[in-house]
Amino acid sequence: MPTKEQVLEALGHVQDPEIHRDIVSLNMVKDVRCEGGKVSFTYVLTTPACPLKGQMEREAREAILKIPGVKEVRIQMSANVQKDIRLESALPPGVKNIIAVGSGKGGVGKSTVAANLAVSLALEGAQVGLLDADVYGPNQPQMFGIPQFDLQPDGEGKIAPPVAHHVKVMSMGFLLKGDTPVIWRGPMLHGAINQFLKDVRWGDTDYLIVDLPPGTGDVQISLCQSVPLLGAVVVTTPQSIATSDVKKAMVMFKRLNVPLLGIIENMTEFICPHCKKTSEIFSHGGAQSLSENYQTPVIGKIPLDPEVCQMGEIGKPIALGRPDSPTAVAFREIAKQLAARISLENVKSKTVTKIEVETGGTRK
To answer: Cα-flanking dihedrals φ and ψ of residue 59, to 5°?
Structure first.
């Protein structure tokens, strides 16, 4: 009959396809049981949005079936999102990873991308928060169907954010009346960002997505100075006039020591809703050029779809409102790729920290 030791030995030859380490040493194998010819265990992924979940389960099953005497394999797939270790001693408590979504330029659909990424991660089973840090043009309340919300602090001065589509949302838009503009200087913006991060009860949150304003100014700097960011995603459209501004945002993140997790190309092509023919509205190749010049992967491309605007205006992001549309499918796949990049970045960070501790080195 197969033994637990044999099972662990077999699974020790199965690698996570993105981290490139065996799943036993990564502590992804739990509760191994051998009952006669039946073997069962829990496979703990680093994210519920794993893009290679099916492949990983299949490879583990095949490895165990090679053990003499095994007749049946039962695998319970679960997930435990790893926490950015730099957040251990930083606020907000309960938040595991903070990811910025920036562009360097307005009009590329950054807020729409941030909203749909948040919803897509939530649909995969993750606990998600969305911080609308675009203080000059806060659009997330409308996109999530909560244009008004009375922010009432509790006895400890903390605020519980509203929840829509399984995403916790906080925005300057909840504090503004009508068409009142935000006319603030740097120190006031810094204070607002700190409050949104540290005085909001985010609770257990696997991913806190931060929707940044366009440009490379006070809000971006304040965010990077307030809390450790696991990484940033940049959004661009294909034409060079957009990518030239996105380059500035990418350089800014690198100078602030924020890892670049990926590039998302929005409005790549237009799909006619009648004949289904695709047309390039802009020039092409912009995201690929950025990827090659800045060694940052393109984690997805999103078609230009009129329903994106329609869904946003009624408060239901397209990833939820039209789940079978090509655009929604693209958002779901990009969210999985982003989750995988976050897991990889956490593993890299822990490896570097372990080396520093063992050698007495310090991170530069």
So the answer is: -65, -35
pLDDT of residue 357: 41
Alpha helices in 256-325 (DSSP H): 286-294, 306-313, 318-321
Residue ranges, the chain, pLDDT below 50: 355-357, 364
Going by the DSSP 8-state scheme, the letter that residue 222 receives in this structure is: H
- What is the C-alpha separation between 247 and 25, in angstroms, rounded? 38
Token pair 């294909």: residue? 238
Supply the pLDDT for residue 271.
72
| Residues paired with residue 298 on neighbouring β-strands, in sequence order | 263
Specify the 3-state DSSP secondary structure of 339. helix
**The 38-45 sheet, strands edge to edge:** 29-35, 38-45, 72-79
Q: Mapping DSSP to helix (H, G, I), strand (E, B) and coil, where does residue 43 land? A: strand
For residue 299, which amino acid is it? I
What is the rounded distance in angstroms from the CA atom of residue 288 to the CA atom of residue 272?
24
Q: Measured between alpha carbons, how far is 64 from 67 in angstroms, rounded to an integer? A: 6
Helices (H) then strands (E): counts for the chain: 11, 13
Q: pLDDT digits over 330-340, tens only?
A: 999 999 999 99
Q: How many CB atoms lie within 10 A of CB 221?
A: 16
pLDDT at 157: 85
Domains in the chain, start-ordered, CATH in brackets? 4-79 (3.30.300.130), 85-356 (3.40.50.300)
How many residues are recorded in the chain? 364
What are the distances in angstroms from CA 299 to CA 75, 296, 319?
A: 29, 9, 17
Do you find a cis peptide bond into 92, omega within 30 degrees of 0? yes
Of 160, 157, 248, 146, nearest in space to 201 by CA = 160
CA distance 262 to 55: 23
Q: What backbone phi and psi angles, to 5 degrees, belong to 26?
A: -80, 0
